[in-house]
Every structure is written in structure tokens, then in C-alpha cells.
Amino acid sequence: MDDSSLLARAQRLETQALIQIYDLYSDELYRYAMRLGGDPDLAEECVAETFVRLLDALRRGRGPREALRAYLYRIAHNWLTDQFRTRRGDISLEDAVPLPAADDPVAEAEMRIRRQMVRAALFQLTPDQRQVILLRYVEGWELEEIAHALQKPVGAIKALQHRAVARLRRLLSSTENQEAGKTPFTR
Amino acid sequence: MTAKPHEELDPRIDHYLSALRSVPPRDPRQAARTRARFIAQAVSLKPAPRHKEWMFILFGKERKMVQILISLLLVLASVAGFTGTLYAAQDDLPGQVLYPLKTWSEDVQVTLMVEPARQVERLMDMAQRRVEETVTLTQAGQIPPETMLQRMERHLYQAMERAAALGDEQMVQTLNRVEARLRAMQQRLASIPQAPVRERVWTQLEAWRRLAEAGEADPAWFRQQIRERVRQNVPVSPGPSGPHGPKGTPGYGQSPVVTPSPGPMPSATWTPGSGPGHHPTATPGPMPTATPVPGEEDRGNP
């Protein structure tokens, strides 16, 4: 898909182009929000809010001229960060979906615990560090695209990534240490 | 999802992060609702009204257009302002602030005219203005400045010079009109009380009137006279001299009485029989002193 021609049509507020953009990116934005928050309702709200903000920007003749996906992830990430900041007490980092009838319920439960631990650690990072970790190691993005999303040079993203990984290691190690009988998490 | 970046990551951290990679499937009904809501918003989307905020207009994408618009307005305002000033200057008298602008605009008008006949008319208008200024100042008890009188002299000289460039028939018609206008100017002067300046201006006009009259009778002779005056380097520039009036050479204006000479010029002392066979009738008009100072014609030029 050629983002630039799609964006050009979107800038002209062509409905079909706008729907095309939605269909192209809404699912992955939903997954991104779910990974970070674990709450389907919050993730749907995040998707809806991200596209409302895109429409508003286009309506005012602004919005992205390139790197549409990075733009959408930036909006979604900022929105989620705001939600966690303002609704800290209301949002649980636990999965808000019922445990599925898995083949291995123990493994699934362990997975949930790991998710909760890593989310807790991620939310102790700065928003930029958190986004770099998620986009680079969970979503699998290239550094250039992350640079677009964070609106920073690639060199700055590399430095950010390095600091984020080091801090995440420390946080997870500390969490593990608090878990009785666990081996300290060290490199 | 590419796994490539994971390879560079500590396996223990990757172990934790991998837990985030799998996500429960999205609820299709909820997804459809969100999509329907988006489509409803997209369909009803209208461009936001622009130029609403001054900051956006001045610093947003429309900045260039605004700058062009402002420049145009400034140019228009400048032109309008200058035109207004120019208009206001037309009523100014010598010594007033805008008078130099008035005379400068007159010179520009003459320069912009192409046809000599129209230039003659315009120069006679300008001479008429000088006469009016003389009348106004004299009635106000003021003495018209020397530069103004010199300027009138220059208008008349230039008018004759342009007339000499015309063909015989057109020149005769033009000189006829010039003569009539000079006579009208002399009559206008009669409306002010007797004063040295009145005599002086009247005599100037009379000398030029007689020259025009003689030119009507003999165009070739008239041209010869004008050529002679050009050759003698008459201190009058043919074009506009800027807004500060004529910058005549020293001595210009010291012989205000126009007495074309030498030879058979129809000066105020010209007598029938002394010319080239023509007998223009000197019409002194309403002024009783048509005769200039004796010997004036010997000065050679005005």
C-alpha cells in the first residue's frame, strides 16, 4: 500500500481513503493497545480515539504528510499514556479477558503473570523508553520507523533504546528478587 | 511481526516481552461498532473553516498568500496616499510645503505627453497657473517669488519651442490658440491693482504674444527665431527639472521681458516695416504699458 497516495486522498477528505486507512491500521492499533493495557474496552477506545484525532487533524488541513503508521502509533501511545496517568487507579495491568480454555492452563496462567510483570515494569519507564521497547522488541519495527513515531533522529532512538533496555532489565530483576525463592535476574 | 530485533535483546527480557506478543482476538461486534462510528464521522467530515485564527493566518500555511495580500495593500495604500498628496498639492501656492510637488507633477505630465501640440496646450495651462498664482499672491499683499516668474517664462519658451516643431498648418492653428490664451492671461492680470510685478508679467506675456502672432503670419521665420534661441543656448531646459522648479543658469530671470532678438522679432518695440514683410498688429490689451523698457531687446534673450 502506498501511504503517500492514500494520505493525499485522505488530505482531500475522501471517505473511501479514510475507511481504507482505518481498515489497514485499526487491528494492529488494537493489538498494540491490548499489549500495553490488556483491556479490550480500553483498546477499542484507544482505536476510536486515535482515528478521531486523525480525522480532526485532516479536517484542519494538518495531519501526516508521510509515515502514516508511525503517526497513528504516536497518537495511540500518547493517548494510552495519558489514560494511565489520569486513570492510574482505575486501570489494572492485568489481562481483562477471561482465561481461555487453553490446552495448558498452567502455562497460560504463567504467561498472564509475565504480562502483568512486564507491563508494570514498562509503566515505570518514561513514555519514550516504553514506546521504543514496544515498537522495537514487540512490534518488530525498524529504527527509522520508530524515529518517525517518536519524531527523533535515529541516533537518539538508539541511545533511548539502550537506556530503556538497561532500565527494564533492572526493573524486572528487582521484581524477580521480590518473588520469593526466585533466582536474581541478572545478565 | 519480524523477530529480528529480538536477536539483539537479552533472552531474559525477550522472555518477558514475548508474553505481550500474543493478544486475544478482537471482539468482532465491538470492532464493527468502532468501525461504524468511524465511518459515520468520516462521511460527515467537513473541512474546518480557515482564516479563523489570526495566528494561524500569519504563521500557518497561508502565510505566503497573506504576505502577498499585505504587500498589495501597502502598495495600494502608498499609491492612494501619494495620489491624495498630489491632489492636495495642486492648491498650494509658492512658499507652501507641497508647492514643489505641484510643479514637479506638472513637469512629469508634460514629459509623458507625446504629441507636441498637446504639450503646447499643457504648457500654456501651466503658464496660466503661474498667472493665477501671481494674481492670488498679489491680492494677498505678497510678492510673487522670482523662481515662480522664471518658471512661467520657461513654460512659455517651451510652448513656443514645441509649436515650432509642428507642421505649418498645425503650427499656425496652435500659435493662434497660444496668442488667444496669452491675451486672456493679460486680461486676468488686469484684475489686480497696479504693481511692478503686474507690469513685468504683463510685458512678458505681451512679448510672447507678439512672437506667436508673427509666427502665425510667417511659420518659417518663427522656426528660424526659435532655432536661433536654441543656438544661443537659452538657459531654459526643455524637460522637467524636478520638483524644485527650474534651475536656470545665473542671470536667468534677470531679464524677464521676453524680447526675441536679434532682427525682425516682434518685440514690444517692433514697428511695422522693420520685420520680414509681415505686419503683426501689436495688441496691448487692457494694459496701457505695452512698451517694455527701452533697449530690452538688446539683451538677446529672456
Unreliable stretches of chain B, pLDDT < 50, 5 or more residues?
235-302
Rg of chain B, rounded, reads 39 Å
| Beta-strand percentage range of chain B | under 5%
Shape of chain A: globular
Sequence of secondary-structure elements of chain A: HHHHHHHH
Shape verdict of chain B? rod-shaped
**How much is the average pLDDT of chain B?**
74
Number of helices of chain B: 11
Q: Average pLDDT value of chain A?
A: 86
Biggest interface in this structure? A-B, 51 and 38 residues
The number of E-state strands of chain B comes to 0
Main pleated-sheet profile of chain A: none
Task: Describe this protein's structure.
The complex is a heterodimer of chains A (187) and B (302). Chain A has 187 residues and is mainly alpha-helical. Chain A is 72% helix and 0% strand. Chain A has helices spanning 3-11, 15-37, 40-59, 68-86, 105-122, 127-138, 143-150, 154-178. Chain B is mainly alpha-helical. The chains are: A mainly alpha (187), B mainly alpha (302).
List keywords for this structure.
heterodimer; A: 187 residues; mainly alpha; globular; B: 302 residues; rod-shaped
Summarize the structure.
Chain A is mostly helical and 187 residues long. In chain A, 72% of the residues lie in helices and 0% in strands.
What's the layout of helices and strands?
The complex is a heterodimer of chains A (187) and B (302).
Chain A: H1 3-11, H2 15-37, H3 40-59, H4 68-86, H5 105-122, H6 127-138, H7 143-150, H8 154-178
Chain B: H1 4-7, H2 11-21, H3 28-43, H4 54-59, H5 63-89, H6 99-112, H7 116-139, H8 146-164, H9 168-189, H10 196-217, H11 219-231
